[in-house]
Amino acid sequence: MFSIREILALAIKLEKNGEHFYRGAESRFADPSLASLLRWLANEELRHMEWFVSKRSEMKPEGKERDLEEIGDELLRDILGNQTFSLQEVDLSKIHDQVSLVDVAIEFESDTILFYEMLLTMVEDKETTDKLSEIIAEENNHIQSLRAFRTNPSGRSS
Predict the structure, then answer these.
(1) Which of 7, 96, 134, 146 is deepest in the core (most CB within 10 A)?
(2) pTM across the whole model
(3) What CA–CA distance (Å, rounded) separates 15 from 46?
(4) Fold classification of 4-151 (topology level)
(5) pLDDT at 68
(6) Which of 9-13, 43-47, 96-100 has the lowest mean pLDDT?
């Protein structure tokens, strides 16, 4: 069983991977509308990551809990390595069209929402649940923006 700090570490990794994916994809496609969408998504992921980092740093483990967490963190790093969850198998050099890229991004955002909804069931602090709910809503907005782009590539606004 993972501690809340370990779960927050997973959330941080998820957001970091999303930011990395979107920034990498932005540099591969020339369409300014797509580049704008990807840049916005990367910045959103970065903002979410910063909140999770802040939340995790507020939760300082003590004594035996700290020792167990250090072991847990090492185990988590060993298990996850450079895994990117739903992006782990994606090679950007093999994505040649915008529709495929958007489909991968939608899958990533959907997986992120599922993870955060699971996390929400484990949190009791109202301020944290409110912020997590806000992030879930933003992730849903990411999906809507991606779907809108897929439907009308030149008509996105944000």
Answers:
(1) 146
(2) 0.79
(3) 7
(4) Ferritin (1.20.1260)
(5) 58
(6) 9-13
Query: Which of 3, 146, 9, 21 has the alpha carbon at shortest distance from 93?
Result: 21
Q: 73 is written with which tokens?
A: 């963190």
Residue written as token pair 């606004």: 157
Q: Helix/strand/coil (H, E, C) string of the chain?
A: CCCHHHHHHHHHHHHHHHHHHHHHHHCCCCCHHHHHHHHHHHHHHHHHHHHHHHHHHHCCCCHHHHHHHHHHHHHHHHHHCCCCHHHCCCCHHHCCCHHHHHHHHHHHHHHHHHHHHHHHCCCCCHHHHHHHHHHHHHHHHHHHHHHHHHHCCCCCCC
Token duo for residue 94: 């093999």
Report yes or no: 122 and 1 within 8 Å, Cβ to Cβ: no
The model's pLDDT over 111-133, given as tens digits with 9 standing for 90+, comes to 899 989 988 887 788 888 899 99
> In this structure, which amino acid lies at residue 144?
Q
* Per-residue tokens: 52: 């999770």
